[in-house]
Amino acid sequence: MTPPRRALVVASPYSEGAARALITGAASRGAMAAEILPRTRLVALAASLPLPSAAARTTFGRRMRVLRDGYAATRPHRVERVSHLAEMVLRAGLRLPCPGLALRASYLSKVLFDRAAAAVELPEVAVVLGFPGACLALFRAHPDARRVLHAVDAHPRAHNGELLRHFSRRRTWDERYPGRLVRRIEKELRLADIVLTPSALVSEQMARYGVDRAKIVQIPYGVSLTGFTPDGPTVDRDPERRRLVCAAHLSHRKGIPQLLDAVRGLPVDLVLAGGVFDRRLLRGAPPNVIITGPLSAEDLAREFRAADAFVLPTLEDACSLVVAEAAASGLPVITTDANGASALLDPRHSTVLPAGDVRALRDALGRVQPLDRATRRAIADSARTAATSITDWTTYAERVLDVVLAEEGRQGTDARAGSGPRRERN
């Protein structure tokens, strides 16, 4: 018996919102879909271990319950779990004391995942969608399929270039892409029939570094704004001081050193919410900085409701959706022209600064005023209307599928027709 043809196969080296939306959207169209994911048996086993009642009430215990529930869920489409080795390398890398080595372990795990994904039998596959650094072997294994590179990040040379423009080579070694990975991603870009980008910023980077504009398809990400509202539970704060919040992976790339310099001595409190890439970044942080660590979506929404503005002075960001979540919570947003998501915002309630300009950032932070409830609600309302380019994940998936599944079985520019997504041709 001949196996069924699968219109779309998504090979994702990690759980990602856009990939999940595409699988769901393809299934809703009646198209067969398959998903290739890395094995997570080690995590699943850890999540299933019984915990003493005291431990179950800790943050660790809550995270284990979330993992357990997630791995207990079933999917209606075919799911292939591949590569125990990729999982082992990734888990071992997370325990390394040097963040640069940990990041390189994650790159290696993607290569191992890619090799295993390429070995999965996918008869007559029509479309394969892969991720940067994790789809070279997959693309080579399916030369007759339409190959879509989901460019979730900046072009690797642009990423490295922006870090070196603002910091020394030694200071940014941990965060820069190694040369081997840069070359690997560039090979994937050459093999791809479609390069799917989330912002004009990334589209221009791709074209600047040699990607054919005719195969670049620009579709902004969807955003789930559920829970991000101006009304609801909040956190305690000093009512006499203005309060700023920055939610990000705290790193050089996100502009955290510039932010700490800008906020030093200002009569404001700055909340830094997110994982810390390297603890050395926070040495000497001024006393008006509050570090919370990673927060759940619910806790982040509480922080947003207590703040007077959101700030993300990123130096390179393909499309940071947290700015949309902050706007939906009623916060004015301060970000940079290096954030692809800045195009999603209502210009009446956002400030876009030159990336790396500490003086401009300090001036913008100093102008932040206390938010009243009416202003907060007005900003939140505008984030959910035609005043912005914010859409949900369902709309995003429909726009992508209109392109990648069009005229199934045909490749090249003929398959990339459509009026919805922006095509890069000039």
UniProtKB/TrEMBL annotation:
GO terms of biological process kind: carbohydrate derivative biosynthetic process
Domain Glycosyltransferase subfamily 4-like N-terminal, chain residue ranges per copy: 155-225
The keyword Glycosyltransferase appears for this protein: yes
Pfam families given in the database record: Glyco_trans_1_4 (PF13692), Glyco_transf_4 (PF13439)
Superkingdom in the source lineage: Bacteria
The keyword Membrane belongs to this UniProt entry's keyword annotation: no
InterPro entries in alphabetical order: Glyco_trans_4-like_N, Glycosyltransferase_grp1
Keywords, ordered alphabetically: Glycosyltransferase, Transferase
Protein name, per record: D-inositol 3-phosphate glycosyltransferase
